[in-house]
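DATA SHEET
Item: assembly model
Revision: 1
Owner: S.N.
Input lines:
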Amino acid sequence: MTRRPQNTRDRLTQTAARLFQRSGYNGVGLTEILTEAQAPKGSLYHHFPKGKQDLALAAASWASDGMRDMIAAAFNDAQDFRAGVTTLCHRIAKLFDSSPQWETCPIAATLFESPDNRAFRDHADRLYESWIDEVRDHAKRFGIPQPDMAADTLFIVMQGGWQLARARRDSNVLRRLPDHVPWDRFQHQD
Amino acid sequence: MTRRPQNTRDRLTQTAARLFQRSGYNGVGLTEILTEAQAPKGSLYHHFPKGKQDLALAAASWASDGMRDMIAAAFNDAQDFRAGVTTLCHRIAKLFDSSPQWETCPIAATLFESPDNRAFRDHADRLYESWIDEVRDHAKRFGIPQPDMAADTLFIVMQGGWQLARARRDSNVLRRLPDHVPWDRFQHQD
DNA sequence: ACAGGACTGGACCGATCGGTCCAGATGAAA
DNA sequence: TTTCATCTGGACCGATCGGTCCAGTCCTGT
């Protein structure tokens, strides 16, 4: 009987990631997470000694890895940088359509609450920079003249675009994101 | 003795706006709001019969008005659209520097939690669109060829830029936002 | 076979949550 | 001065919060 696949730790991490993204760190109780993950409290505090906070850090890391894989896949298949950006935007739009459309960026929902928690903020910073690093590496590979700025631009429009798509409940905002990018500044002949 | 200025309703609204922005809707308890606003529970439920939810809607509206005023002021003083954007970015950077630098967009912090609340989402949409409308009107006034798109672009880079500034703890991200805007698409000679 | 760490199950805790209720204070109109 | 609606003050409520604790179970190495 395999009613509960994987090990308990992964089940907890992934369930928590999903629920935190849906309702934010403070919007989800341990009871709900434990019920959905079919795990008792003892297991949680065995795998995550600091409780909810440890769980949130692990959940955010897991969600971040998924996003970084998505970025890597989009650029690996691409002919040039711009094509990679376009592919990524379309795939994120698809992701948006297949999710309850009020969800936030998983990192922000999980880690950008609770005022005085330095560990959360530092962790969020690290995860975000790992996305940006990934993009920058591809920008370099494609010979973009200002890879740092290009990576920052993509991060900015993705974050802001998701927010606007959420408000308007319209994934086309995400598909049109390449229109908001100053491509002339990223041309090879610069 | 004027220990408590203004009327109770405004004190509650503004205190709630500040605390919600700091810790999110679910991150602030009524007790904390009431203590800081120096008001008892009876007053809260007199002015806001539906309790925390009514209070959040009012707080978000109040915060939104402040932001819209800021947008209007930046563009009213400006020579052209681009100058207005630059001014706005610098003022927002200043605002960022003078606040605890982990705060979110006040609308998002207050209204973009709790999964199934349609009223919150609709209200957030309305408030965001009021910002975008304000920008679009100025874009039209300055003769920008694609005012809708220009307004969307500004919203997107402001939201995304704030997020990146927050992660990096660096307000210069906001000051450099104009570098991420495709100005050639907003030129008059189009 | 058995020893011992890894892991599970869940009862239990004090604190805090959002919300209800109503007596008392206040102030303007009659 | 009396009246009445508005507003304030705070005691009180059941539910849920995150966290603790430990007995019991399972698995692995010897």
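QC remark: Chain B has a mean pLDDT of 93.
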